[in-house]
Fold this protein.
Amino acid sequence: MSTTERDTVQAAREIIAVGRDLHETGLVAGTAGNLSVRLRSGRILITRSGSNLGRLDEASLVEVPTGPAPGGSSGASSELLLHRAAYRADEAVGGVVHTHAPALVAAGLRDIDVGEVLPEVTLGTGPIARLPLLASGSEALGLAVGKAVARGAGVILLRRHGAVAVGPTARVAADRMELAELAAYSVLLGSDPGDVADPKRIEALAARLGSLARASS
Ligand SMILES: [Zn+2]
């Protein structure tokens, strides 16, 4: 086996293992999310469009160049452009992970800056950047992700969509995603006490519980 082949086999193993872990920790579900690794050749090994990250095998992966190439992208993830942009923005990026992690999406919907609320988390994740709503798979999204990575972001929140994490390996990128998700969850648990104490909400909840109690008696 040549060095290049061995490199591809190792990258495939890393993607398959990381995908399974992301699925097991609830950061991805169904066919949402995608993941890639930069090969020594400079090309990218990325999950195919429609793959379930919890059940990847070698047939779920496709090798593509970092730039556009004749012949298209051979069934690569629809978010290929953002992966390519991240690798082009910083040579130190060796792995890219994209998920719709629920607490990160929720923090984005509430416009919460997780890194500002819990600054210590950025020691593990690197700076957390936030992008406005941009169409999935678009060149504009790719450009914005590339700019955030060039400015040193480790995690990038995509408003009303999900998050991207980058790292020297896909494993490190996934760990950053996991840390950011947990931090976002903590922030959501600790935020908006007024919302929880809203008398109308409590009244509505009491009425609902009352009707459930009557229905079950
Ligand atoms: Zn997405």
The first strand starts at residue 34 and ends at 38.
